[in-house]
């Protein structure tokens, strides 16, 4: 399960509703559309790939153009890109601003103070983590009281610290307030405006925006769930999410199925300790029934890198016999030729083991033994 | 009683008529926990496993003198349930519920502190003082009473380590699952501090995972304030950056919260850090505690 990201154009539309000024722009799904939009908006415009990974600029996914013809030409090139593996399916065409200075403004959760933190910097347009490492004195932070909420003086404190021109104080406070309000109302875990530009005309404009939503808050935002872009999700991760499984694809050869997030991570670590590499993180959660286990196994086996599978189940609420039934159901259907190692301990382990002994499965009693065996057979 | 729960605990179950609530109420009763009341709004007068159900926490508290509450209600209603317990004056609140929105927890965390209550969790397995009281969802039979205190952000990984300790003959004074969310009511440092003061605890096992800086804060505390030996394990050494590993709190973001950093911080504080869950047992053995009674039990049914 991942924190849900939304596209830049969606984030900008959302922030605009909270009084944050964004450059006029529209989304194009073809080079021809990009051209039409550029003509409507008036050039120069920027053409920006809409993908959910970082590093678009470096990959050539963000370009400034001065005519509608160029917009079409450049869009064509951008549509042919794969940025960190993500194909570009849409571009944002937006009015270009002439920029005097680039600032940073963002909000996130501070785990240490357990408050929302609003962060600003006079060094915008680059990764804020880089600024934090290189010039921490250029970063200003204020913390939002959970009971009082945002108050304008917090924005003024930030503005003075980053030496914002006094003429922009009021607009900066409006943007800060809007950003925090948006954060709270959509249940975000990150809202970033980077850069927040001071234009040559002396106005503040959000030239780029990023919003990450808290998955746990989505149940009260059915409208935001609709912003999820299925094209951007790994198909197996999507299938897992729809079945309430936590799955993260990794690069190794050993598929893992475990109950519990901590134990899943520890199982991966022990595989590594014995010289193997996990193909995935997969937590079936507590109390998983056979059908869910079967889906999980199918997801694991659909990764062609997988050369062996390890089941590590510490039964509590999860019953070992249910897990065994799920494994057997999936095996009947997919008939994999990869070896499998099962380690089932806890609730109904004897019944689980008995079921699996019929399925030609290698068994183990400890995690160590299981990891050693699976690394061995995956070679 | 070791820390937090024991024979004196009089437990209230919020969400007792739900599937989870009812199942675990029976499990806790079977373990010997003194469950005195349940709460489900609108179900006053019902009984679950012989336990009377009340409409409100306040009514349950007035009728039974409950001094701890465990919460099994769905995520959408969990913050409300915690507030109700806090306002009824329940001093110890254990929230099992997973998936509570972060912004709800921001307010809950500060409100609980303001009112002087203690919250364990959310998204946790609860806690147990073996042989006395189980206030949670962990399999009871894998535990045995002893001298090792255990604190963990995880659930089943905790069971794995407990089982390892039990098989090696090391019983536990108490095991506390503090939860896998970014905002939790009780931190490692809070529990370490209780173990340090607890005469029944001679050594401590700390199970951490990637994400946040709780383990670093724990290391700081151990280095400066603890005299009891601590053995640690950090899960997620193979986890990639930027991906949430199941728990909402288990994510390496902006290059921070890695296992390597946490291991280094703990080692610097004198903690012996295991490379695998089973090595935790070996490292505890090296401490040379008097082993508790050896046990010959399987973690078995109804866990």
Indicate the proportion of strand residues of chain B.
15-25%
Main sheet strand line-up of chain B = 3-4-2-1-5-6-7
Helix content of chain B: 25-40%
Give the tally of β-strands of chain A.
19
Mean pLDDT of chain B, rounded to whole units? 92
CATH architecture of the largest domain in chain B: 3-Layer(aba) Sandwich
In terms of structural class, how would the helical and strand content of chain B be classed?
alpha/beta
CATH homology superfamily of the largest domain in chain A: Succinyl-CoA synthetase domains
The percentage of residues in β strands of chain A lies in: 25-35%
In total, the number of strands of chain B is: 14
* Relevant CATH superfamily of the largest domain in chain B: Succinyl-CoA synthetase domains
| Poorly predicted segments of chain B | 293-303
Uncertain stretches of chain A: none
């Amino acid at each position: 399960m991942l924190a849900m990201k939304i596209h830049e154009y969606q984030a900008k539309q959302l922030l605009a509703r909270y009084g944050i000024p964004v450059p006029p722009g529209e989304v194009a799904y073809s080079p021809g559309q990009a051209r039409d939009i550029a003509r409507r908006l008036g050039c120069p415009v920027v053409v920006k790939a809409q993908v959910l990974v970082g590093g678009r600029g470096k990959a050539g996914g963000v370009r400034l153009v001065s005519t509608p013809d160029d917009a079409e030409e450049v869009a064509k090139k951008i549509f042919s890109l794969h940025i960190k593996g993500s194909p570009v399916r849409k571009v944002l065409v937006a009015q270009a601003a002439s920029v005097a200075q680039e600032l940073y403004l963002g909000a996130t959760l501070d785990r240490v103070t357990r408050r929302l933190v609003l962060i600003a910097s006079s060094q915008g347009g680059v990764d804020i983590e880089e600024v934090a490492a290189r010039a921490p004195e250029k970063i200003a932070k204020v913390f939002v009281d959970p009971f009082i909420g945002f108050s304008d003086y917090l924005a003024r404190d930030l503005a003075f610290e980053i030496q914002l021109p006094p003429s922009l104080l009021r607009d900066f406070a409006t943007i800060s307030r809007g950003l925090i309000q948006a954060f709270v109302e959509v249940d975000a875990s990150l809202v970033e405006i980077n850069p927040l530009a001071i234009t040559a005309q002396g106005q503040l404009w959000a030239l780029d925006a990023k919003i990450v939503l808290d998955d746990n808050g989505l149940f009260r935002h059915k409208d935001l769930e609709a912003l999820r872009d299925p094209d951007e999700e790994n198909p197996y991760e999507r299938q897992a999410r729809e079945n309430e499984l936590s799955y993260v694809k990794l690069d190794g050869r050993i598929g893992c199925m475990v109950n519990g997030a901590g134990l899943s991570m520890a199982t991966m670590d022990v595989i590594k300790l014995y010289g193997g590499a996990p193909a995935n993180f997969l937590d079936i959660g507590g109390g998983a029934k056979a059908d869910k286990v079967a889906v999980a196994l199918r997801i694991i086996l659909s990764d062609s890198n997988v050369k062996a599978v390890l089941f590590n189940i510490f039964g509590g609420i999860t019953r070992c016999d249910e897990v065994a039934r799920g494994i057997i159901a999936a095996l009947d259907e997919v008939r994999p030729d990869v070896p499998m190692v099962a380690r089932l301990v806890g609730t109904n382990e004897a019944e689980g083991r008995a079921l699996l002994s019929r399925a030609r499965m290698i068994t183990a009693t400890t995690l160590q033994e299981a990891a050693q065996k699976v690394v061995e057979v995956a070679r | 009683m070791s820390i937090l729960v024991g024979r004196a605990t009089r437990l209230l179950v919020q969400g007792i008529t739900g599937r989870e609530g009812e199942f675990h109420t029976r499990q806790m009763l079977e373990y010997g926990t003194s469950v005195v009341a349940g709460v489900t709004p609108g179900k006053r007068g019902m009984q679950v496993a012989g336990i009377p159900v009340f409409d409100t926490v306040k009514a349950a508290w007035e009728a039974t003198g409950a001094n701890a509450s465990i919460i099994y209600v769905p995520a959408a209603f969990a913050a409300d349930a915690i507030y109700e317990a806090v306002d009824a004056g329940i001093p110890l609140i254990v929230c099992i519920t997973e998936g509570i929105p972060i912004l709800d927890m921001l307010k809950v965390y500060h409100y609980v502190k303001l009112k002087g209550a203690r919250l364990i969790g959310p998204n946790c397995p609860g806690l147990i003082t073996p042989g006395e009281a189980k206030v949670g969802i962990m399999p009871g039979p894998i535990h045995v009473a002893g001298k090792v205190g255990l604190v963990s952000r995880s659930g089943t990984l905790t069971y794995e380590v407990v089982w390892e300790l039990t098989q090696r003959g090391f019983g536990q004074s108490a095991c506390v699952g503090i939860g896998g969310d970014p905002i939790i009511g009780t931190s490692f440092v809070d529990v370490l501090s209780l173990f340090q003061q607890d005469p029944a605890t001679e050594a401590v096992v700390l199970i951490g995972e990637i994400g946040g800086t709780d383990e670093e804060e724990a290391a700081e505390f151990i280095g400066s304030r603890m005299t009891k030996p601590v053995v640690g394990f950090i899960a997620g050494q193979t986890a990639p950056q930027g991906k949430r590993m199941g728990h909402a709190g288990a994510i390496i973001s902006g290059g921070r919260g890695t296992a390597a950093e946490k291991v280094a911080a703990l080692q610097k504080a004198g903690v012996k850090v295991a490379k695998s869950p089973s090595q935790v047992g070996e490292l505890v053995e090296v401490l040379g505690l008097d082993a508790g009674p050896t046990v010959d039990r399987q973690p078995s049914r109804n866990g």
